[in-house]
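step=encode ok
step=design start
structure_in=
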């Protein structure tokens, strides 16, 4: 998840994620540069390679670093994933593209009027492609050990049915979208966004990992599920976050102007935070 810096108003002209040197830049309303989807592809591939690698070492029973307690293991995975998301947001390419790395976040930013609609399809395709590429690279790097952990695919607890998983995964994106909306409405506080998002990502993995799988990102699940062949519940991890983004954006727009999540302006948010 990611977005752009909100420490200053968006310029009237520009392109998504132009690097200002101070952090992820505001998302513009002009067409994105051709390189920005490529940045999303690479950033998502890096994220997925790292996530699958972490899971391979922490959750594979044959690993010398394996943790027997699954809750502790997912706490470690969540902490490292949050730190990784923070680093990718603050990276040079993250500053340019916005470092969404999550199709549901891109959708949310569009619905929050912070990302051009004509850029959504290219970003989503790049993120899903990056998910597959990162997972394949992890398989090439670590061999059959990656298959033993299902290529890092998130899995729900046996006691959770599909609708419970759907509600949890969708609910995560409602919260994430509202957080994004808050920072869009308060650009002076944008410097805190990467920190808040990193903590939020870590909490989702640590708390919901043992229950719903804690993916909260279609790209997080897409590559691993395709590689492992366990596609039966994939639709939940694709649809639920997208629906959560829609509901979160709708809730944001219903909050009265001048309330805690808005600037009091009649105009919609113009800048995007990093996710």
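sequence_out=
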């Amino acid at each position: 998840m990611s977005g752009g810096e909100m420490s200053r108003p968006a310029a009237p002209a520009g392109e998504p994620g132009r690097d200002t040197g101070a952090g992820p830049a505001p998302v513009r309303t002009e067409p994105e540069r051709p390189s920005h989807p490529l940045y999303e592809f690479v950033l998502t591939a890096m994220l997925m390679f790292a996530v699958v690698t972490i899971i391979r070492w922490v959750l594979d029973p044959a690993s010398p670093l394996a943790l027997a307690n699954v809750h502790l293991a997912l706490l470690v995975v969540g902490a490292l994933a949050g730190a990784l998301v923070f680093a990718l947001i603050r990276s040079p390419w993250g500053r340019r593209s916005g470092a969404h790395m999550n199709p549901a976040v891109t959708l949310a930013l569009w619905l929050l009027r912070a990302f051009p609609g004509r850029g959504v399809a290219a970003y989503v395709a790049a993120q899903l492609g990056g998910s597959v590429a990162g997972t394949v690279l992890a398989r090439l790097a670590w061999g059959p050990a990656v298959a033993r952990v299902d290529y890092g695919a998130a899995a729900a607890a046996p006691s959770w049915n599909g609708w419970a998983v759907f509600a949890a995964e969708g609910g995560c994106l409602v919260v994430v979208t509202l957080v994004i909306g808050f920072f869009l409405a308060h650009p002076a506080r944008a410097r805190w966004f990467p920190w808040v998002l990193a903590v939020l990502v870590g909490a989702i993995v640590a708390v919901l990992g043992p229950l719903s799988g804690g993916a909260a990102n279609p790209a997080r699940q897409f590559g691993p599920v395709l590689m492992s062949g366990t596609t039966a519940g994939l639709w939940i991890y694709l649809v639920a976050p997208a629906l959560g983004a829609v509901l979160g954006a709708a809730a944001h727009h219903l909050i009265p102007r001048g309330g805690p999540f808005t600037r009091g302006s009649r105009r919609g948010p113009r800048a995007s935070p990093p996710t």
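step=design ok
step=annotate ok -> Residues 30 and 72 are 45 Å apart (CA to CA).
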